[in-house]
Amino acid sequence: MKNNLFPIFLKTEHLRFLVVGGGNVGLEKVTTLINQNPKTHLKIVAKDIKPELQEVLEKYPHINVQQKSFEKQDLEDVDLVIVATDNTATSKEVKQEANAKSILVNAADQPDLCDFYLGSIVNKGHLKIAISTNGKSPIIAKRLREYFVDVIPDEIDNNIEELNKIRNNHKGDFSQKLAHLNSLTSVFDKKKSTKNYKRLVFDITLVFFALFIGYALSSVLSFSDAKSFVYNIPTIFYIMLAVGFFAQLVDGAVGLGYGITCSTSMMLFGVNLPSISGSIHTAEMFSSGISGFSHYRFGNVNKKLLLALAIPGVIGAVSGSLLLVYLGNEYETITYGILASYTLIIGIRLIILAFQKKIERKKLKGVGLLGFSGGFLDAFGGGGWGPVVTSTLLSKGKKSSLVVGTVSLAEFFVTLAASLTFFAALGVSHGFIIAGLIIGGGIAAPFAAKLAGKIPQKVAILAVAFLVILFSVRILVKLF
After folding, report:
1. 82: buried, middle or exposed (CB in 10 Å: 19+, 13-18, 0-12)?
2. Which residues make Cβ contacts (< 8 Å) with residue 458, sequence separation at least 6?
3. DSSP code of 302?
4. Siroheme synthase central domain spans which residues (predicted)?
5. What is the pLDDT of residues 286-325, one digit of tens each?
6. Less CB within 10 Å around the terminal CB: N or C of the chain?
7. Strand, coil or helix: what is 242?
């Protein structure tokens, strides 16, 4: 069926709305109108007013509220009517009386009684997108709205402002102005903009994988003793197989915690400290590369934020790696205590994150310092990039999909820097550890994918926090 609707955008300060109904639907419609324009001329008629709606109305004293049944006199000085009641008889009465006065009506969830629809709205400053499914599936419109809210960058409003200035100050004729504006907005061509990043991540991952496997095989195995090698695989490989499986299961179900889970588990088994972080980052580099590539492909990466995190993050990762190599060899007991204390703090931070309520957006400052700190602590502690950087950005009210996507892609470069540093300083003496983590994680991946979304995020994060704190405390007690 063809959709014959004609979309328009109304200047609501020039219109007078009547909402009939004060329940859940009435709350939704009133909130929608106010969110678009707090100064909307609005009258509400309802026998019962929901307490949540009453709280909203207290903030807008200019709204006229009449707690009574609908009467045709209520249509005086009204331009548009929204019926927010599940009483079909009332809806039909309102529509009949309103249409008799040439007033258009929207009846919630009753398409046959609608003269117009209220679409799902995407707001990004000056940019506004209205989505309609011709009254057939409001839930699809809602999901599309959520998708576009996440995909469209918050900086789009700044871009619109700058383009408006250029448009107003442009001295050329219409065709010249159009050509100039088209060239400036060509960056929105996703097919062009994603190629370089996707190719870069893929090539680096492939080269490093080939380098690592080649070096490991040449330094650990020779063709003549390959057979005996299989029969003499050290116990640590099987331990790391289990650690990698468990850590990936946790990370897949929760969305964070791979590094910190591996780190605390490996400390319990007495793995050499530099080998802990080096192994984790080498194993994690492959998963973060694939993850970052996927997020970029689906438009979940903010380029400006990516550069602001990745560059200082790489510097921090190299610094943390070198410091750990030195301290881990010279001051093992002290370093164990520092790392256990660090993981304990991360566990507490995870608890705070689990109970964190949704907060309003705040201006983000010190992104470079955040990236450096996250990279340094991640390399030095064997994990924590996600709990440190992701939780900080989310606490500032940033969109979760963009935060996760951008942080995941930045993590690839951070783990790459840490891996190369450990690789240069330590070689691949910890090759069995890395192999165990990679294979264990690979086996767990499909199970983790099935768990993702099925376990409440709050419960899952608290579970990870509990394990991290338990492991950390056990290590500290053992040391002191």
Report:
1. buried
2. 354, 355
3. -
4. 125-146
5. 666 666 666 676 667 788 888 999 999 999 989 988 887 7
6. N
7. helix
Supply the DSSP string of 319-356, one letter for each residue.
Answer: HHHHHHHHHHHH-HHHHHHHHHHHHHHHHHHHHHHHTP
Q: Strand pairing partners for 16? A: 41
At 44 the three-state DSSP class reads strand
Closest CA to 94 of 111, 64, 73, 109: 73
* pLDDT tens per residue, range 20-29: 998 888 888 8
The half-sphere exposure of 234 on its side-chain side, counting CA atoms within 13 A, is 12
CA distances from 13 to 88, 238, 322, 377 (A): 30, 69, 62, 52
Architecture of domain 12-118: 3-Layer(aba) Sandwich (3.40)
* Structural element, H or E, at residue 204: helix 190-220
**Residue 384 contacts by C-beta under 8 Å, 6 or more apart in sequence?**
259, 260, 342, 343, 346, 374, 377, 378
Q: Report, as an integer, the average pLDDT of 158-186.
A: 63
Cβ-Cβ contacts under 8 Å for 387 (sequence gap 6 or more): 256, 257, 260, 346, 349, 350, 353
CA distance 418 to 314: 8
Residue 248 near residue 259 (C-beta atoms within 8 A): no
Closest Cα partner for 355 from 456, 256, 259, 451?
456
User: Is residue 64 classed as helix, strand or coil in its secondary structure?
Assistant: strand
- Give residue-wise pLDDT tens across range 431-440: 677 777 778 8
Q: Is 53 within 8 Å of 80 (Cβ atoms)?
A: no
Beta bridge partners of 121: 130
pLDDT tens digit sequence for 248-295: 776 655 555 677 677 777 777 777 666 676 677 777 776 666 666 666
